[in-house]
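Run log, item B.
One chain of 196 residues. Sequence copied directly from the ordering sheet:
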Amino acid sequence: MDQRKLHSRGRKCLVTTHIFFASLWLGGGIAIFTILIANHKPLNGYELHSINTIIDTLDSLLVIPGALGSLFTGLLLSMFTDWGFFRHHWVTTKWVATVLAAAVGGFLLMPSVKTMLYISLTMEISVVQNAVYLSNRQTALIFATLNLVLLLLLFCLSVFRPWENKRGGQGPDGCFDEDFEYSYIFHNDPFMKPHV
């Protein structure tokens, strides 16, 4: 075994940490998207400001740590397991989608949210008719939707692993492949063979 590669327990701990951060990111993304959808008819300026403050807080406490943690643990998984960066198409696609989701969230979505928060500081309900506020809200909703689609794609790629090589035996990360084991038992165990 390569000295740089993690053993089974280390890999499992790292994967668990990666899933935790990815869940933070996805959960924060879902919450922000939901609040943006529901934010179309606030009762007063204070409610509007509170809604924008909640979105900003979710970003700071869930989305940013989740995105940074996912990127960092994903980097470690690619470096210290046999998955690598370019060995499997699904891993490469996942890296591209991760960087794209982080860029959409950080450079396109959050500036609109920060602008909405700043404009709503006046605590006036008339802000919801402000052209700049409305434009930023629409932009935030579009990019929150795109970000959520990318995050869901990341989870699907992790679960389904399209384009993965099906070799049987141990997988590229050293994990046991159940299909290989069942096939081996069926073909080599005299009690499992069909009797003719």
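Observations after the first pass:
- The chain is about 70% helix and 0% strand.
- The CA atoms of residues 94 and 154 lie 6 Å apart.
Flagged for discussion on Thursday.
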